[in-house]
Amino acid sequence: MRNTILRLLAEENGATAIEYGMIAALIAVAIIASLQVVGSSLSTKFTAIAGNLN
Predict the structure, then answer these.
(1) Measured at the alpha carbon of residue 46, what is the angle toward residues 42 and 52, in degrees to the nearest 5?
(2) Tens digit of each residue's pLDDT (9 = 90 or more) over 3-49
(3) Does the residue 44 lie in any domain?
(4) How many domains does the chain have?
(5) Does residue 34 lie within any of the structural domains?
(6) What is the pTM of this model?
């Protein structure tokens, strides 16, 4: 019983999975933020181009 408890305390698989999940979430937030910035820039460019076509 004591060995089982010590083994569970020493195991790090769960912590590693949580760390990978947090890294994936941070990457997703960075991608979303960059797409919003690029999206507004593209919208401005397309509006300018459409205005020049008329």
Answers:
(1) 150
(2) 887 777 777 777 778 889 999 999 999 999 999 989 888 988 999 99
(3) yes
(4) 1
(5) yes
(6) 0.57
How far apart CA 45 and CA 52 sit, in angstroms, is 11
Q: Does a structural domain hold residue 45? A: yes
CA 48, CA 54: separation in Å to the nearest integer? Answer: 10
**Is 10 a domain residue?**
no
| 52 backbone dihedrals φ, ψ, rounded to 5° | -75, -25
Residue type, 12: E
DSSP for the chain?
Answer: -HHHHHHHHH--HHHHHHHHHHHHHHHHHHHHHHHHHHHHHHHHHHHHHHHHH-
What is the per-residue pLDDT for 7?
A: 78
Domain residue limits at 54: 22-54
* Residue 6 in tokens: 């010590």
